[in-house]
Design goal:
This protein is mainly alpha-helical. It has helices spanning 8-140, 146-174. The longest helix has 133 residues, at 8-140.
């Protein structure tokens, strides 16, 4: 060892110092550093598990939200359909009411026309009766008693009414 200039005592001291340094590092450096690294690895794994759990929770909430949204949309469609049905029912009711009122007005108008017609016919009968009595009196130039006048007027009115009805039937048939 003299050739290399290695002193065995220095070599033994250096080996002892190296072993001592290795022991000190192992006790004071490697254990705490490995402990810190292990703790850090556990924290990372915990955070990863927490992140996965939060992701699952978020997915569940999203799925629940989508189901809730679909239910609301379905309810909205149902309510719109009900509103349309209700609107159609109200429209039909209003139309039916309007038709009923129109029919009532038409019926009253027809009744009034019928009353006016009957009134006009009655007035016309009276006028015709007066004219017939006057004409008959002039034609016969004699006076008739009241019962003969009435019989003559009634017969004239019946004949006039029959002619009027048959004339009206002909005109209504043409229309």
């Amino acid at each position: 060892m003299d050739i290399l200039n290695i002193d065995p005592r220095v070599l033994a001291v250096q080996i002892g110092g190296f072993l001592l340094l290795l022991l000190v590092f192992k006790l004071f450096l490697f254990k705490p550093v490995l402990g810190i690294l292990e703790t850090r690895q556990q924290e990372i794994e915990n955070r990863y598990r927490d992140a996965e759990e939060k992701q699952r929770t978020a997915d569940q909430l999203r799925a629940e939200y989508e189901r809730h949204l679909a239910a609301i949309e379905e309810q909205m469609h149902i309510r719109i359909a009900e509103a349309v049905k209700e609107g159609q029912a109200m429209r039909d009711e209003i139309i039916a009411l309007a038709r009923s009122k129109a029919e009532d007005i038409l019926a009253r108008a027809q009744e009034q026309i019928q009353r006016e017609k009957e009134k006009a016919v009655s007035e016309l009968r009276g006028l015709v009766a007066d004219l017939a009595i006057a004409a008959t009196g002039k034609l016969l130039e004699q006076t008739l008693d009241d019962s003969k006048h009435r019989q003559l007027v009634d017969r004239f009115i019946d004949e006039l009414g029959a002619q009027t009805i048959s004339g009206r039937r002909r005109s209504e048939g043409e229309v």
